[in-house]
Design brief:
648 residues; mainly alpha; 2 domains; Cytochrome C Oxidase, Chain A; two-stranded antiparallel ribbon
Length: 648
């Protein structure tokens, strides 16, 4: 009995019991559905074993949407708890768990997944490649991310969720103040998913540098590809820091190594520094792909070339460099002295300059353009003023002396969300809507999409603008309740109403997907947006081989120039194409990683050793496996292309 007690929830509540029932019923429904419709074989052949970058991108996207609603449910509960003074909807422990998992899920498992989803689907198409450089590693990247996400998400029904904040500061995250296994879940889930992200970074750097179409020099790459390249360089430099910090934290908790303790030679600020050496570049890992998305959408719907291509590239490079030298602004109030504060205050404000350059470039792109107010363009336009306000308040927080007033208040929460929501969520929905026809061969409904935009944009403003006021009035973040005499009630109620507006907007997105899947026309052609970059030069949806003939590129807007200036993209004839075979090894290996992580969390050392041996066995099998892939012959290509053109 003692063995099973370790899996119990330390602080159960009716909401957690309801979640257990919901998870069980959902699992049963999925298994029964797959069995009844005889889809197990299809699921294995087409999805679980796929190495196709497009399908992997779609799986990332589906996972990100699921995590959006998982993290969104946490957000609604937080806002409901603080909507009125002295509320008892949640107790302090449950609230702590919710704000912790909300941050981790939204940053690591929603936002990261969505940007990698779009990078997976779009970048190989934009550079004229058949796939990524290492297709099996790409599949392993996804499954490691997915298993890390599932590992964290079972924590609130098996053993208890982490409750020390998404930053997991020590000593709060140590065994003394966090005695349950919740923080173990945090450490292991992030290590497993982070390993997948690091592999993605290496994979896409090689893909972009080595697999571009003939004629596509670096300065002829589409802006989203540039953003992807710089983002993945940041990933390769930043994520090893997080991995090492998490490994040290895990050893502190399980083996009493005292890296981050406040006694026996430990240093709790070491964790804070390592976390933010990763954490602040992480913000730009999320934001730079969004900048790339907007740089594709705005020229398309303004019907103008992107203004200042070179300065856009240079500004992203500068942002990436500065992102590594601003992390200490998180410690302005922690006593490191005026000189250090001044240096990092300057670097923090300096990073606003290249970001401002990009905003002006987008505005100049739209100047005198023939703007079409499509759903992707509405999100791009809404992004500019809301993100600018979020950025300007970031500069305010970057003033070290003023930060003594702002730090750890709701003002900081408002700033962060007014950067991340327009900078990631708006871009996510804009990019999803923009490239949806390329993924599935039909368009999302514009009318429903526009309703969704107004709810999301209005909800964002209403949810977070009142926090500036309550924060300046002294409301600390992470407070689960407050007294009526503080005067915070009205601002928190407005935030709750705004959160409901956001929820309605996201619900409309889901309804739009359902409605459009059932009723949208499939006769939209290959270029429904009259777009500009290379991914629109192939069919909707994209065939497995991407391009029947390798394109020849002359500019950064190759497809637009082919349409308007007569540039010939496809000069050669049909040739045999080599393609990689599907493989079950990445999925199987990730399952063993899940077992390894779960066993490590609960100190089940025999299971840890067995699963580790299984992981090494998968790697050994792959090392000796002879798999030369398969070929699509020129005759098969010609026939497939003829059928695809005939279907339009």
């Amino acid at each position: 009995m003692e063995f099973f007690e370790r899996f119990a929830i330390p602080h159960p509540s009716p909401a957690i019991y309801a979640s257990m029932v919901a998870i069980a019923l959902t699992t049963i429904a999925v298994v029964v559905g797959l069995t009844y419709f005889k889809k197990w074989g299809y699921l294995w052949r087409e999805w679980l074993t796929t190495v196709d970058h497009k399908k992997i991108g779609i799986m990332y996207m589906i996972s990100a949407l699921l995590m959006l609603f998982r993290g969104g449910a946490d957000a609604l509960m937080m806002r409901a708890q603080t909507a009125v003074p002295e509320n008892t909807l949640l107790d302090a422990q449950h609230y702590n768990e919710i704000f912790t998992t909300h941050g981790v899920v939204m940053i690591i498992f929603m936002a990261m997944a969505f940007i990698i989803a779009l990078m997976n689907f779009v970048i190989p198409l934009q550079i004229g490649a058949r796939d990524v450089a290492f297709p099996r590693l790409n599949a392993l990247s996804f499954w490691l991310y997915f298993m890390g996400a599932m590992l964290l998400n079972i924590s609130f029904v098996i053993g208890g969720s982490p409750s020390s904040g998404w930053t997991s500061y020590f000593p709060l995250a140590g065994n003394e103040l966090s005695p349950s296994v919740g923080t173990n879940y945090y450490m292991l889930a992030l290590q497993i998913s982070g390993l997948g992200t690091l592999i993605t970074g290496i994979n896409f750097i090689v893909t972009i540098l080595k697999m571009r179409a003939p004629g596509m020099t670096l300065m002829k790459m589409p802006m989203f590809t540039w953003a992807g390249l710089i983002t993945n360089v940041i990933i390769v430099f930043a994520f090893p820091v997080l991995t090492v910090a998490l490994a040290m934290g895990t050893m502190d908790r399980l083996f009493a190594t005292n890296f981050f303790t406040t006694t026996d030679g430990g240093m709790d600020m070491l964790w804070a520094n390592l976390f933010w050496v990763w954490g602040h570049p992480e913000v730009y890992i999320l934001i730079l792909p969004a900048f790339g998305i907007y740089s594709e959408i705005i020229p398309t719907f303004a019907r103008r070339n992107l203004y200042g291509y070179t300065t856009m590239v240079v500004s992203m490079v500068v942002i990436s460099l500065l992102s590594f030298v601003v992390w200490v602004h998180h410690f302005f109030t922690m006593g490191q002295g005026a000189l250090v504060n001044s240096i990092f205050s300057i670097t923090t404000m300096a990073i606003a300059v290249p970001t401002g350059i990009k905003i002006f470039n987008w505005l100049f792109t739209m100047w005198k353009g023939k703007i079409q107010f499509t759903v992707p363009m509405l999100y791009s336009l809404g992004f500019i003023p809301i993100f600018t306000i979020g950025g300007v308040t970031g500069v305010m927080l970057g003033m070290a002396s003023a930060d003594y007033q702002y730090h750890n208040t709701m003002f900081l929460v408002a700033h962060f969300h007014l950067v991340i929501i327009p900078g990631v969520v708006f871009a996510m929905i804009a990019g999803l809507t923009y490239w949806w026809p390329k993924m599935f061969g039909f368009m999302l409904n514009e009318r429903i999409g526009k309703w969704g935009f107004w709810f999301v944009a209005g909800g964002t403003v209403l949810a977070f603008f009142p926090m500036f006021i309550s924060g300046l009035d002294g409301q600390a973040r992470r407070m689960y309740t407050y007294s009526e005499g503080t005067g915070f009630g009205i601002w928190n109620m407005l935030s709750f109403v705004g959160a409901i507006g956001l929820a309605i907007g996201f619900a409309l997105l889901v309804y739009n997907i359902y409605y459009s899947t059932r009723y949208a026309s499939r006769d939209i052609g290959d270029d429904p947006w009259n777009a500009r970059s290379l991914e629109w030069a192939t069919h909707n949806p994209v065939p497995e081989y991407n391009f029947a003939i390798t394109p020849q590129v002359n500019s950064s807007e190759a497809f637009w120039d082919a349409k308007k200036r007569g540039h010939k993209l496809f000069k050669a004839g049909y040739k045999d194409i080599h393609m990689p075979n599907n493989s079950g090894i990445p999925f199987i290996m990730s399952v063993f990683f899940f077992i390894f992580g779960f066993a490590f969390i609960f100190s089940m050392w025999i299971t840890v050793i067995v699963s580790l041996i299984a992981i090494l066995a998968c790697m050994t099998y792959r090392s000796f496996e002879k798999d030369d892939g398969y070929h699509i012959t020129a005759e098969e290509l010609k026939k497939a292309e003829s059928e695809l053109r005939g279907a339009k």
